[in-house]
User: Fold these one by one.
Assistant:
Number 1:
Amino acid sequence: MKKLRVLLVDDEIMIREGFKRLFDWEAHDCQVVGEAADGMEALAQIDSLRPDLVIMDINIPIMNGLKVIQLSRMKHPGTAFVIVSGYDDFSYCREALRLQITDYILKPVNYEEFGTCIDNLKISLFEQRVSAEPEQQEERTITGITRYLQEHLAEEVSLSVLADQFHLNPQYISQLFKSEIGVGFLTYLTNIRMEKAKKLLLSTSLSIADVAEQSGYADYRVFTKVFKKSEGSTPSQFRRDFLETREGEQDNRI
């Protein structure tokens, strides 16, 4: 079996360095391919690196680990997640179990137990891949469709547009989203548009209208309504809250 590609996610650099230096990844046929320090960075790294396994803390900035897992599941259902947290809290454990994570490990990490977790995970992933071989064609199809959506997010996209692009029946594509990703087409499209919008709001000074347009909404009023329903605040408030939080963190460091 090929080496597992691993992404480390923790806002504390010493924790990430500890994982890299204190655990023998090579002995367990694993390779650390990337790191992330917050939830938004983790989502971007998962999208670009396509790791087999994500080792993640829950309490990370911008977006907590459980939300990252929930969103990642939509696009990368085959990615495995192991939560490493300092919180021995039943509500966290219950939510993690609902998201079907592979394991929930408390800090400080016992690396011998962690190695057993990794070895068991490798066996499980191998068995899943063997059983999934007949479904590989559908997986390639949905991967192509989701990639197309990411690349054409600012455009008007519908099941009919996808059907013409991929020479498939719209109903078949709709069923693919439910069977391969676990959510309907419109839910998936709205989620990735909201993620694009949040990235633009936090990393650029674009106007709300421009953010709306680049996220696939010609009418910024519709965009604002959808954003508020999804995130619980307007785009302007979301940006303002982030900037105030960041300024507060900077003041605390001074």
Number 2:
Amino acid sequence: MDKISIVISIIALTISALAFWLTRMKKGTIKMTRPTMIFFGPDGGKNPDKVFIRTLLYSTSDRGQYIQNMFINLRRGESSQNFNVWVYGDKQFSRGSGLYVDKSGVTVNHHFLLPKDANYSFLAGDYLLQVYVEMVDKMPMKIFEQQLQLTTEQANAMVDNRAGIYFDWAPNSQSYSSHVELRQLTGKEASELLM
């Protein structure tokens, strides 16, 4: 009888230690939900183009993690461009310099801009959008990938930073539907176009 209770105690202790390790000690990974919206286009005014997403970032373990940086790699054919200036927030925007993500997650808007010395044009074609996170003391890790298509009409509408393209996720069809949204021009911009 004593041997049975000892075996049961050892099994219970092992299960408790395993549960403690899985919930408190194991770091897990950072994941993200499929963005409900993806945007290609101008960053307001005459600023360069950007990629914008709205998504939930979460940790797969109870122990949270620190994201030091995020960036997007956008590929079209043989060309590849990193949008590595990360800004996040809903009403108050912060230049990405660290974000704590726990199991319950963080939902915010993420804006990815070009570096100041880069020049990029959204041309018609098939794009591969890849989202990367960089954890503290770790190499960047890809957490999301999506194929998107930009039509010739959409690419033409984006000329002169006058329009952006929204890709909205449609859960019923399990695909993104896209539409063009013209940017509101300021009085000065409108008069420059008429000249």
Number 3:
Amino acid sequence: MKGLVLAAGKGVRMMPLTEDKPKAMVLLNGKPLLEHALRELEKTGVGECGIIVGYKGEKIRAYFGDSYKGMKLKYFLQEKQLGTAHAVATAEEWIKEDFLLLSADVLVERPLLEELSEKKGFAAVLTLRHDDFPERYGVVEVEKDAVKKIIEKPNCAPEGALVNAGIYRFSPKIFEAIRNTKKSQRNEFELTDSIRILMESGEKVGFVELDGPCLDIGSMEDLARAEKAKR
């Protein structure tokens, strides 16, 4: 199974740290955020990993080169920041099998990636978590072993509702759904819209629940919390 990591973002809310480097290269306990993601993918047994780069992507290429601890690396350029679905589409020609997708700024650990790797029989598998403020995210409704509905940033949602953590396993079927995805109100091609298209076409979308906190590094405050949690 291949891996794919989103690492094209600038990280405006993390200035001045990102003034001369991409968000994925911000240091967390002495190592770039992206390295934490690659380390867990390598420990999971992923043999090849694609990295989607954009803002100052040459810094990422120069640091990591063509491999990480024996895991082959390949780079894909997202020239314009047009959303997560647009980013994933840059790797379509390279991916011919199921793959794991994560963002460099969302910290994950091997047990979760192993659980996703073993979750077969779905066109897509989402990682879900409970959140006290679910209206800030994509709220997900499930039934038995499948996702039934995704509501993007609803006006209201019950405290502790399941939300999308942004860590996935996809089959190559996601690329056809991406091709049929229209721009959102944010003028971006959203991956959650592509997943809805998969579901509407009759494909089964599964899920795993994240057991424990989700460390999403979106600001300097998040980085400080993650540094404490990772010590």
